[in-house]
Amino acid sequence: MARDLLALSQRIGAALIERDATVCAAESCTGGLILSTLTDCAGSSAYVEGGVVSYSNEAKMRILGVREETLIANGAVSKAVAAEMAQGALALYGADYALSVTGVAGPGGGSAEKPVGLTYIGLAGPDGLLQVARQVWDGDRIGNKTASVEAALEMLLTALDA
Question: What predicted TM-score, i.e. pTM, was given to this entire model?
Answer without folding.
Answer: 0.96
